[in-house]
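Slide 14.
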Amino acid sequence: MEPQLDEYTDISYIPSEPSNNFQSFDIYCKPSDGDAPPLVCFVHGGAWRSEDKLDHAGLARRLAIFTGYAVAIPNYRLSTTEDIRHPDHAKDILRFLEFVITWGGPCGTSAYNPNRLCLIGHSCGAHMLSSIFLEPTQPDDTLRPSAELLKSTNSHNHVRGNI
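Slide 15: predicted structure.
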C-alpha cells in the first residue's frame, strides 16, 4: 500500500498577476500527525537555463515518504533571454526561502516547521544556495539572508580571515 502524501502545486512565492510559474513552488508532505516536520528545500539544477520543479516531483515524493519531512521544490527564472542573469536566479531562491519561513503553510496548515529548513541544491542550485549563504562580499549585497532565515537553516555567516 502506497503511503498517503499531500501535494500542493504552483504556489506563488512572489505575488504577480498573472501568476508566474517561474516564481512558484510545489510542496509534498505526509498528512499531519500533530508534530510539524522539518522542510527540505530542493533547488534544481539545469545550468540556469533549463529544468523545472516538475522534473523532480518523483524525488520530492520519495524524500517526503522516506524521511517524513515536507519537501518543497521551487522554480526560478531561467536565463533563456538576456534579461535574466546572475544573480537574478539566486534572488528568486532567496525570496522563496524568505517566503517559506513566514508563510502559514498550504491551506493554512502547519505542514512543516519553518524554523527547521534543510537545504539541498543540485548543480547550479547548489551554487545559488552557496551564493546566498556564504558571506556577502559587498555591504549592499542583494543576496543577504535575513537573520530569521539564517536561524531557520542553522546557518552562520562567517567572517573570512586572511590566509
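Speaker note: Strands lie at 6-12, 24-29, 39-43, 70-74, 117-121.
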